[in-house]
Amino acid sequence: MSIIKSLVIAFSMYSKIPMPHLELDEKDMKYVMGFFPLIGLITGAYVYGWIYAGEILYVPDISRTLVLIILPVIITGGIHVDGYMDTCDALNSYGDREKKLAILKDSHIGAFAVIKLLVYYVLYFAAAFIVVQKAGNMQIIIMAFTFYLSRIISGLAAVNFRGARNNGMLHTFTSVTARKRVNIMLVMQLILCISCMCMCSIITAIVVVIVAFLVLLYYRHMAYKQFGGVTGDLAGYLLCVSELCMTAAIAVITLI
Fold it and tell me: Any stretches that span the bilayer, and where are they (predicted)?
C-alpha cells in the first residue's frame, strides 16, 4: 500500500493531475522519487499527441510550438520553472553560499529570474520550432522522451547527491527514501527510456543521452560549488536546463 501512496504523493506534489486524497505517513514517501519520472512520461505523451493533433487540425507550426512549450507547465503546475527562476536569481547574486541559499527560500522574484526565464523560453522555442517544423516522427518521439529522461536523471541526482541543507521539500522526501530500491527503479526506467529512444534513432538517442549526462555533471559541479549541495529549487533548474539542451541537440541533428 505504501508503494501506491508513494505514487499518489509523487503526482500530487509534482503535477496538477488529480489524485485521490489519502491519509499519509512518513513511510509512504519512501518511493516518491522512483515514481517522479512517470510525470515526465505522461508529459511527453501529451506533447507528442499535441504535435500530431495540431498537424491534423492544420494548426500553424508557430502555434503548435507555443502550445508545446506551455503544456509541461499546465501538467506540472510549473514547479520546475519556479526552481529555475529562484536558482537563476541566486546564481546572479554573486553572494556567498549562505546568501544564495537564502535567495532560494525567498518567495520574491528578482530581475535576473525574469531575464533568464525570457532567454530560456526564447531558446526553447527556437529549438522546439525546428523540431516541430522539420523533424521526422522518430525524432519527435525522442523529444517527447526528453521529459521522461530529465526527471530520471533529476531523481538520481536528488537521491544520490549531497543535500545543501537539512530542510525543504526535497530533503523531506530524500531523507526517508528507500535509496537502494529507488535507485533500482530509476536505473530500470533509465534503461527503458534509452532503449525506446534507440529504437527510434540510435544516433539521435546517443547524442541526447550524452547531452543529458553532461548537463548532470555540470549541475553537480555547480550545485556543490555554489550551494554546497542540491535543493528542490536546484532540481527544477536541472529539469529546465536538461530539457532545453536535449531539445537543442535534437534540433541541431535535424538541421544536419
Answer: 31-53, 65-85, 109-132, 138-161, 182-215, 235-255
